[in-house]
Structure formats: C-alpha cells, structure tokens
C-alpha cells in the first residue's frame, strides 16, 4: 500500500514510511539483498569477462533498490527483471513481487509486471537447465522434460509471493474498510446523540412552557378571585357579617383548590426529574435524550387528560358569579366530547378571559358564548366597560402574559385567536379550535 510522503511523515516515520520499524525492516531487507547480489555479481563478472569490482558494484546497487519497495514497487520489480539474466536478485524479485501485489497499484499493471517476471525467469531457467543437462555426457532426456521443469521452477519462484501479496493486500483493504465503517458509525452515533439531546432540550422547553401556562392560569385565576373575595370581606365585614363569613369561606375553598392544582403540577415535575435521573444512570446519552423527550411528552399528555374540561365550565362561571361578577353563558349546538387538549385549551381561554375581567374591569359584566360546530368549537368572552371608579378596586397586578399564553395555546392546536377592545369600551376574546376526535385511553397499546 503506497501513500504520500507527507502523510507518512505526519504519522511519525521518516520519509515515506508510516512507522520507524517499517523503515528498519526495509533497510534490513535492502542490506540483505545488496549482499546477495554482490556475491552473485562475482560469478556474473567472471562469466562475462568483466572486472570483479564492477560485478560487485552492480549487485550492490541493484540489491539496494529494495529500500524503496513501499514507494515505487513497480520500479523494484523492473530492476529485478532486468538483472534476472545475470542470475542475481532472488530476494529482490521475491520481496518486490510480494510488495507489488499487496500495493494499491491497478490490477492490470500487476498482471503485466508479473507476466514479465515469469517470462524472464522461465527463459533463464530453461537456458540454465539446458546447459546443465548438456554437461552430463550420454544422458538421454525426453524433449518435454526440460520445458516442463523450467515452467514448474519459474512458477514456483513467481506465484507464491504474488499470491501472498494479493491476500495481504485484500485483507489490508478489508481492515481499512471496516475501520472507516466503524469511524462513520461512531460519527453517526454522535450525530444521533446530539439530535436526541436537542429533541430532549426542545421537549423540556415545551414542558416548561406548558407548566408555566398552567401555573399562570391556576395562580392568576384563583388568586384573583381570592383577592376579590377578600376585598368584599373587608367591605362588608361590619355591615353584613354573614356575607363576610360566606366570602371568607369562598376564599378558603379557592385557596385549597389552587394548592391542589399546584401540587398536581409539582408532582408531574418531580416525576419527570426522577425519571431523568434514573435513566441517565443506566443508558447512554442518545437514549437519555430520547427517554427525556418521551417522558416530557407523556407528562404533557397525562396533564392534558387530567386537566379541566368544558364540562366544568359552569362551575368556573359560578366562581366568578360568587365573586360578584354578572356572567351570562350562551351555548349553541350540541355538546360532544373533544380531545383532552382541545377541552383544556377551551376551558383555559375562558378562565383567563374572566381573570382579565376581574383584573382590569372590576364590576363589569361578562358574556361567555360557546358554539359547537361541525369540525370546530368556538368560544368568545366579552365584557362591558367597567363602572366609573371600580376598575382598580381590587388592586390586582398583571404580568402581561395572559393574552400571549392564550394565543400560544390556541395556535399550537391549529386554531385561530383574536382579541381586542369593543366599541362600547369593553374587551372581547375570541378563539376557534379544530374539533379533534377524542382518543380512547387505551389507544396505542399493543
């Protein structure tokens, strides 16, 4: 396998080697090949009538080429083929063929180079076998024996290193493919974990927003009525003690109802925190994100099912009437069951609108209209202008989130929300929600 010199240097090895031990191995092979070719060069020089020094020098130079086998494997094999007629370079040819077959050189180049090496070895082997047989006086050998022996000898010297190199190269590429696949899977798992964490953060944010709306509705409405009744107690305590006692009892009832609803919501929060803590101690980050998102979704769904509904609307209006507000209810169409989130949102819109009347238009009357239509349910709360001097009798603070919360609730279900002042000086809140079918409690169970 061949790579660029910069990549190898970055890996810690000198020049084109990946590791120092690879450089030491190639240096040792080159030294052994140079010594072998130097010894064989002596016989070649004597047979060719050349000075022995030239033969030794030629062998040393040719054998030393093995040091660049990882960088230029084709060149190493070509040098081995070139010195084959001189009967030098057995180690050079063997290691060169193995390196070439194990590298990423195109297969056709490997095939052509291997064929050239096989042909050169076959020719030299055939010539040396013929000369050796000719030296034996009176020997009688069949015609096919010499070619057969030459072919077997050349194949025996060429095929093993090539086959071994092909096997090692294929195994190396397989390991690299598996390593790349493992890296890609790890990256994908990290992305999934990040996305799961983002979904969990989003779910937690949605759950915090929902709980904030619920607490605002509970606290704003109940406490507003409590303040109104407390003001009424203060006003009539001396004039009408029985009415004062009745108003004080209403304040106590509303306070207990507010505490009950707050405890329910805080219980949902504690359950969600306990689930998140137990999950984080048992599963990886991705599963934590998914479990947190699922827990938040289940908590939201459970709160929607356990929340108020349109069937409790009359009780809600009764609380406002008990606080001294004149409230009229008008219902159109035939009442039917809706999805829990639709029922709860409709109830909260009416509740928040009446709370705003208590806050900003104390003493004014209100009209609540509820219409059951095909495919939707509509509600409208309209109050008249507050009487002179009665608008701030209760001294109720306002956080400015009531209308924003109502709009978010309605739009989250795909509905329409409109609010604004009337020509008569009052205020009107209108909302239309799609009539989603009620889902049975056992839906989704396998």
UniProtKB/TrEMBL annotation:
Domain (Signal transduction histidine kinase subgroup 3 dimerisation and phosphoacceptor): residue spans on this chain: 207-272
EC number of this enzyme: 2.7.13.3
Catalysed reactions listed for this entry: ATP + protein L-histidine = ADP + protein N-phospho-L-histidine
Sorted UniProt keywords: ATP-binding, Kinase, Membrane, Nucleotide-binding, Phosphoprotein, Transferase, Transmembrane, Transmembrane helix, Two-component regulatory system
Transmembrane segments: 48-68, 74-97, 109-128, 148-169
Pfam families from the UniProt entry: DUF7134 (PF23539), HisKA_3 (PF07730)
Keyword Coiled coil applies: no
A molecular function GO annotation: ATP binding
Gene Ontology CC, one term: membrane
Designated name of the protein: histidine kinase
């Amino acid at each position: 396998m061949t790579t660029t010199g910069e990549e190898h240097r970055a890996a810690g090895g000198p020049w084109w080697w990946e590791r120092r031990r690879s450089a030491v191995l190639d240096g040792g092979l080159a030294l052994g090949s140079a010594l072998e070719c130097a010894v064989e060069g002596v016989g070649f020089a004597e047979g060719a009538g050349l000075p022995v020094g030239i033969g030794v020098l030629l062998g040393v130079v040719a054998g030393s080429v093995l040091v660049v086998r990882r960088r230029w494997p084709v060149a190493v094999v070509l040098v081995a083929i070139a010195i084959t007629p001189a009967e030098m370079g057995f180690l050079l040819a063997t290691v060169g063929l193995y390196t070439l077959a194990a590298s990423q050189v195109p297969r056709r180049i490997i095939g052509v180079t291997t064929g050239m090496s096989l042909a050169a070895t076959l020719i030299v082997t055939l010539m040396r076998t013929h000369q050796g047989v000719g030296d034996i006086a009176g020997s009688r050998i069949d015609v096919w024996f010499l070619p057969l022996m030459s072919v077997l000898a050349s194949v025996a010297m060429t095929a093993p290193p090539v086959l071994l190199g092909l096997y090692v190269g294929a195994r190396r590429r397989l390991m690299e493919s598996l390593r790349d696949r493992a890296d890609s899977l790890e990256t994908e798992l990290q992305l999934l974990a990040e996305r799961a964490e983002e979904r969990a953060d989003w779910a937690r944010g949605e759950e915090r927003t929902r709980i904030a709306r619920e607490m605002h509705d509970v606290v704003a409405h109940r406490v507003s009525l409590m303040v109104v009744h407390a003001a009424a107690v203060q006003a009539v305590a001396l004039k009408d003690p029985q009415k004062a006692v009745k108003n004080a009892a209403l304040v106590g009832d509303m306070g207990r109802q507010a505490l009950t609803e707050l405890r329910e919501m805080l219980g949902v929060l504690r359950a969600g925190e306990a689930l998140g803590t137990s999950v984080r101690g048992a599963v990886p980050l991705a599963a934590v994100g998914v479990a947190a998102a699922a827990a938040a979704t289940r908590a939201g769904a459970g709160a929607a099912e356990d929340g108020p509904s349109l069937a409790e609307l009359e009780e809600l209006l009764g609380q406002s009437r008990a606080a001294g507000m004149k409230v009229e209810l008008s219902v159109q169409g035939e009442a039917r069951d809706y999805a829990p989130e639709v029922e709860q949102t409709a109830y909260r819109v009416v509740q928040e609108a009446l709370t705003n009347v208590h806050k900003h238009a104390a003493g004014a009357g209100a009209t609540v209209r509820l219409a059951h239509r095909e495919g939707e349910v509509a509600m409208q709360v309209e109050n008249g202008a507050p009487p002179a001097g009665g608008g701030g009798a209760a001294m109720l603070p306002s956080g400015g989130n009531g209308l924003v919360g109502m709009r978010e609730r309605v739009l989250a279900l795909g509905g329409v929300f409109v609010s604004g002042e009337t020509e008569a000086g009052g205020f009107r809140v209108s909302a239309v929600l799609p009539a989603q079918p009620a889902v049975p409690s056992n839906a989704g169970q396998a």
